[in-house]
Amino acid sequence: MAASTEQVGKETLAYCTSCKMDLAHLIAAMKGDRIAKAECKTCKKIHAYKAPKGITEPTAKKPKKAKKSAEPEANPIELEWEKLMTTHKETPFKSYSMKGKFVLGDKIKHSNFGDGIVGRIIYPNKIEVIFRTDLKILIHGGL
Ligand SMILES: [Zn+2]
Fold first, then answer.
1. What's the CA-to-centroid distance between 2 and ligand 1, angstroms?
2. For the segment 3-59, what is each residue's pLDDT rounded down to a tens digit?
3. Do the Cβ atoms of 34 and 50 come closer than 8 Å?
4. CA of 31 relative to ligand 1 center, distance in Å
5. For residue 124, what pLDDT is reported?
6. What whole-number distance in Å separates Cα of residue 48 and Cα of residue 130?
7. Which is it for strands 93-95 and 107-110: parallel, antiparallel or unpaired?
């Protein structure tokens, strides 16, 4: 087995457990006719020899942002809107007008924003209306 020790210091392709990919290594130690330890030329770490796995790109750094945009989370306003619409399903709609007078829980049909429900009275003349996708502050009880 004298020949095997001559392999030490020679370059070989191995899987680096630190870099998580196949990289050029220097043979650091032999065991019989097999490579026991290899030094990664990239990270300079000596580790147990692992045969190349055919991985030439790091696997740990896959971007995860794409998945998030593909599955948008439910809009919290929309959930609230659906809940309120169910709770107040017996309430008739009123058409919105700045001159109208609205109270909490009134359902409003708005020409631009669609169906909404009064979620909050802000000032005597302002109401917060929950529409399907957005909250809007509307004026009411105008003079
Ligand atoms: Zn490495």
1. 28
2. 567 899 999 999 999 999 999 999 999 999 999 999 999 999 999 999 999 877 766
3. no
4. 21
5. 85
6. 62
7. parallel
Tokens for 83, please give them. 């809940």
- d(CA 24, ligand 1 centre) in Å: 9
Q: State the distance from the centre of ligand 1 to the C-alpha of 20, rounded, in angstroms.
A: 7
Measure the CA angle with vertex 61, ends 54 and 14; round to 5°.
30
* 3 state SS of 82: helix
Measured in angstroms, how far is the CA atom of residue 65 from the centroid of ligand 1? 27
Average pLDDT over residues 72-79: 80
- Site of tokens 């650091």: 28
Could you tell me the pTM of the whole model? 0.49
Using the CB atoms, write b or e for 20-51: b if 16+ within 10 Å: ebbbebbbbebeeeebebbbbeeeeeebebee
